[in-house]
User: What shape does this take?
Amino acid sequence: MSKIAKAKASGSIKGWKHSKAGLWLSIGTSAFGAISVVKDVKKARGDQDTLKLINAVVGAVALVTGTALLVRELRQLGDDDILLG
Assistant: This one.
């Protein structure tokens, strides 16, 4: 039985989104989101708009939390990634 067939039988195929490559892509996308958050914070501080600043900070916290979840999933994935062989 091939690796893929074994993985399908055991239910360990999680799809592209849950592969190491997919997780790294998601983390990279989060890095681009961080650029946007930094711009929002700078603009809010320049305009002295407290509400926009709070919105940017909440967005930053969400981005950090999402990235932490992705990193945790990447660590848990381990060596059983089918796409890597």
Q: What stands out?
A: The chain has a mean pLDDT of 80. Residues 6 and 12 are 9 Å apart (CA to CA).
